[in-house]
Amino acid sequence: MENAVPKATAQTVSETKPDTETAASSPAKTRGRKKQTDIQESPSKRQSKRPKADQPDLTSDEKPSRVKRTYAKNLVVEVPLPPRIRSPPPPPQPVAEARDTPITPRKSKPKTTARTAPSPVKTQSGLPLKLLPSRLHPCLNAQKREILRTLYDPASLFDADEDTGVEKTANKQLEDLLKSTIVRSEGNSCLLLGPRGSGKSKILDQCLKSLPEPPIIIRLSGWIHHTDRLAMREIAYQLGQQTGKSFLQAEDDEEDVFVEQDDNPFLDQPNPEVVETGLALPPPSHLPALISVIPTLSRPTVVILDAFDLFALHPRQALLYCLLDTVQGCRTGRGNKGLAVVGMTARIDTINLLEKRVKSRFSGRVIRATGISTTHQWLSLTKKALCPEIPSLIGDEDLVNEWNDAWKQHLSELLEDRGVVDMIKDMAGLAKDLKLLFRILIYAVVRLSPDSAFLSPSLFSQATLSQRSRPSLYDSIDLPYPALCLLIASIHSITSGHDIFTFEMLFSTFRNQLRASVAAPVQVNGGSIGMARCSKATLLSAFEHLTSCQIFVAAAASSNTMAKEFTRYRTTLERGEVRRIVEKTGQVTLKKWLNKAE
Amino acid sequence: MDTSIFGYEDFVQELSTLILTYPPPFVYIYDPIALRTTISVINKIITDTSGDDEIPSNLDISFANIDAATCFSQRLLFDTILGSLLDLGSDEDVTERWNDSWDSFIHGLRYLHSKKRENSTRDVRFVISIEQAHRLKEKVSESIIPLSRLNELSQIDITIIFISQTQWQDMKPILGASPEPYYIDVKPLIKSDIIKTLSSRFVFISQQALTSSSKYALCYDPSLNQLYTHYITMICDVCFPFIHDIDELAYIAAARWPGFVKPILSSSPPDSDTVFPSEDTRLRLIRLFNPTVTSALESLHPRLTNAADWAAANEPETNILEQSFGQIHSPVTKPGGAGAGTTQQPDAGLSSLPRMTKFILVASYIASTNPPKSDLRMFGRGLDEKKRRRRVMKTQSKAKGPSKVPQHLLGPNPFPIDRMIAILGALLEENDVDSRPPAPEFTIPGEYTDMEVSRVAISSAVMELASMHLLLRTSPPDRIDGPPSFKSAISQDTALALAKQLDIPLNDLLWETP
C-alpha cells in the first residue's frame, strides 16, 4: 500500500505511523514511565502525540524537529498549554483513513437507497444527478473529510509566505514584541485590533507557537470576567495551574516541594504561587498583590485579554491599571522575567475608553489585523480551502489521481461560474468575515453525496442563502390551516387599525369569515368550497404554537389575572410574508380572505 | 421508538457527518414547526453516534443534552451540563463544585476533558445540545454569549448546539457579541413522509403490545399492519390540514384505532391468525369512522380530554358493520357514541351553582363588559315606566382613527363591587321578582330587591366566587378605603349559558352585541 502512495504523503505516513503505533501498541511502556514522573506524564504524552500528527496539514517540513524540541522543553515546564490543546483535534489515523468510509459508515446506506430511488429533496434542490461510480466513493468521503478539517482549523490556509503585506507586518510586530518580552524580559503591552473574523486570534496563536521558549499564558476574556475580582481569581488559578506544576516537576517530588517551600527562605525566586498548588486559591485580599508578583515568576508571562474593551468598562479599570502598571514597572536584569499584555478587540475607540492614568501606562502600540479584503483573495482562498490533498491511503493511486483530476476540474468550473464569483464578490464586499465563507463551504461540502458529488453553483447559492442572507424564515415554513387562519385574521386586524390584538379578536374575525364563507352553498364536484370549520380550542392551540415560535409576540406583560384569550399580542409577520405563505399552500379561500384585507 | 422518521434523512446526514468529523463550534438548529420531532431525531443521532463503537474514527464523543426550560439559573445550567457529561464517563465521584462562575464551569469542562483523555486512547469531543434555547434569554440571558463562545473560552474540542423554535436573530446578543452560528434549518415534514413514518411504527407497537397486558393489546395484532397503513392515511387525510405535528397525529391515531378495529376483531374468531378485512369492509370502515376523526381532533388536539377516555367514550357498537350494511348509502349514519362526551360544555361545573351566585356571575360579566356610562341607559327605570329605556343606537361618529374594538374581545374590565351590586339589583328586579315568596311588608317597588341585594350572603358569595377564580379581585386585598374592585373571569359562552338558565335576555343587556 505504501509503495503506491505519492511521495509527499508517503512522508507523512512514515512520520505519523510509527508515532501512533508506539502510542497505541506500547501502553505498558508508557505506564512504566508514568509511575516515575507521575501526573506530569499524561498531558505531555498527549502533546507529544498531537503536534506531530497534526504536522501533515501544517505545511512545513522543518516543523517536526522543532516541535520535538519544544516538546522536550514542554515536558519539563509546561503543562496544560491551552493553545496546543485547542489545535486541531483528531488527526485522522492512517488506519482509519484506509477504510473506505471514514466519515460515517451508515452514510452509505442512505446513499444506496438514494441511488435506487432519488429522494424528493435531492431532486427538488436541482442538483445535477451525476452518479459517481462506486469505486470513487472513498475518494469523495476522504475529500469531504479533508475539506471539513481544513475549514475547522483554517490556520493551514494562511501560509506565511502568501500573507498580504499588512498581515505579515502585524505578525512580525507581535512576534517581535513577544520575543523581546521573553528573550530580554521586557514589559510590553499592545492592542490587537481588527474586525471580527480578521484573524486576530490566528495571528496571536501563530506568534505564541513560534516563541523560542513557552511562556506562562494567562487567558482572560471580557465576556466572562465581568468584574475585576473574577478576573483576578482566574489569574490566580491559571498561574497556579501553570507555575505550580512546573515547579513540581523540576523538583520531581510533590511532598518535598511543599515542605521545602514552606520554610525555605533561601529560594532564589520567592514564589508565592507555589504554596497554593492545585486548585486552592489565595485569599481575596491577596489578589491585587498577585499581579505585581507576575514578573518575579520563573518564566515570562503573556497575559491575553480577549474583548479588551469590556475590561475598560470595569469600574476604575483597576485590573488594567494593575497589569499595565506592572508592565511599565518591569525592570530587566534583576532576575525578573518579562510580562506582556496583549489585548484583543474589535472596537476601534478602545484606547479612548481608557482612563488617563491607565492610558499613560499603556504603550499605545496598536497592531491591526485586517484580514483579507479583495475578491481575488477570497476566490483564491476558496479554491485553496476546497482542494486540500486527500491522503492517498485509499489504496489505488490511479483512482486517487482520477478523482483529483475530476475534482479539480469541477472546482475550477465552479469558480469560473459567473454566479459563484458574484456571490463571493458580494460576500467580500458585505461581510469581510472569513468565518462566513467557511460556514458556507461547510454547508455545501456536507451535502455532497454520490448523487451529486461535485459542488454546483446552485448548491453554492443555496448555501449562501442558508448561511449569509438567511431565508426570511417563512419561505420554508409550512403552517397548518388554523395557524394560517390566525395569521390572516391578524392581518385583517392590522388593516382595521389594531396592531395589537387578542385571541378573541382574531377568533371573531375568523368566525365571521367562516359564517360568510359557508353561507353560500356553492359546491364544486360535490364538495363545499367554503372554508373548513375549526373549533375554538383547536384555534387556541394553534395560537399558542404561534406564540411559542414567536410569530406572535406579547405586546404587554401577561399577568396571571389575565385569561390567555385576552393577552395582547403583535404579529411579527408582514403582510407580504403572510401572502407568500398563504399562496404557497394554494388554498383559494384563504387567499381570497387575505385579499379582502387590502 | 427504534424506527426512524422519514423526511429527516438529509438532516440526519448533515448533523451526524458534522459531529463525527469536524463540527463548527456553534450550531443553531431552527425548527418552527415540530421541535419535539426534531429533538427526538437529534437524540437518536446522539445515541447512534455515541453508542456505536464500530465507527472507524479515533473519536470519543460525549454528549450532554439539556433543556433550557429547566435551567433557569446559571448554577442549574452548569450543573446540568457537567452532570450529564460526567454520567457518561467514569463513575468516580467528583467532590469539587464547578458551578459558581463561568471560570469554574470551564475549569470543570477542562478537567472532565483531560480526565477522559487519560482514560481513553481516543480523542475526546464534547457535544452539548441545548433544547429550547430561546428560553435562555428569559432567565439566564447573560449566558448566551459565553455559551456561544465556549469553544474558544475553554480551548477544548467542544461544540454547542442550540435547538430552538425561534430564530437566532431573536435571541442574539447585541453588538455582535456572539459569533454567528452555523445554521441548520429543519425542513417541515410533508404528508407522505408522516404517513410513512406513522405506519412504519406499527411493527414496533405490535411488538410492544405482545408483551403488554393492556386491554388494547389485541388491537395491534401484526396481521393488521396493512389495514393500519390505510387507517393512518385516513387519519392524515382528515387531520393533516389542521396539525403538522407527528406526535399529535400519532396520539389521535392511537385513540381511534381500538374503536376502528373493534368491528373486525369482533366479527372474526379471536384465535384466527389472519384478520384481514376485504377491500369492501375496509372502505366501509373508513367511511364510517371518518367523521369521528374530526371530533377526535377537536377534543384531543387541545387536550380537552385524554386519549384513553376518548377511546372509551367513543367505542363503537360491535355490530356496527352489519347495522350500517343496509344503509351504507345514507351518510347520516354515524357510529354510536360519536361526539358524545367529546366536547365538554364550557359551563360544566357551573350549572350546579346556587341561583343567586349565577345572578352574580351574570352581573359581573355585564359590569366587566359594558362601559360604566351605559348603565343608566341599560338598567335605569323611571318610577312609572315598567319598560326599560330604549337603547339609543349611537350614531357612528365621524372621528378618524380605527374603529373601537368591542370590549368582550379585549377582555374584562375591572369594576367596583358597588356597581356590580347595582346591576345585580336591576337584574333581580326584572327577572327574579316572580320567584320570591310573598313579602307584604315591602311596599315600595324595589324595596324587596334592595333587601335581597344587601344581604351578607351576597358578599360572602362574591368572596367565594373570588376564591374559585370565577371573579378576579383586582384591588389589593388589604386595602380598606373604597369598594374593592373585581373582574369577571368567565367567558362569553359561559355567561350566555348562565343567562339562558336564568331566563335573562343577556344579549339585550350588553352594550355591544357579540
Biggest sheet strand line-up of chain A: 2-3-4-1-5
Category from helices, strands and their pairing of chain A: alpha/beta
SSE string of chain B: HEHEHHEHHHEHEHHHHHHHHHEHHHEEHH
Any low-confidence stretches of chain A, pLDDT <50, length ≥5? 1-129, 245-279
Rg of chain B, nearest Å: 32 Å
Average pLDDT rating of chain B: 80
What is the topology, as strand order, of the major beta sheet of chain B?
2-3-4-1-5
> What would you report as the Rg of chain A, rounded to the nearest angstrom?
31 Å
The beta-strand count of chain A equals 9
| CATH homologous superfamily classification of the largest domain in chain B | P-loop containing nucleotide triphosphate hydrolases
Low-confidence stretches of chain B: 325-346
- Largest sheet of chain A, described in full? 5 strands, parallel
SS summary, helix count of chain B: 22
Query: How many separate helices of chain A?
Result: 29
Q: Level of helix content of chain A?
A: 55-70%
Helix content of chain B: 40-55%
Summarize the entry for a quick read.
The complex is a heterodimer of chains A (598) and B (514). With 598 residues, chain A is α/β, with parallel strands linked by helices. Chain A has helices at 7-25, 27-37, 41-54, 63-77, 82-86, 94-98, 108-116, 120-124, 137-152, 165-184, 200-209, 228-251, 254-263, 272-275, 287-293, 308-311, 318-328, 350-353, 356-361, 375-386, 397-416, 418-430, 434-446, 457-467, 481-495, 503-519, 536-548, 575-585, 588-595; strands at 187-193, 216-221, 301-306, 339-345, 366-368, 523-524, 527-528, 552-554, 569-571.
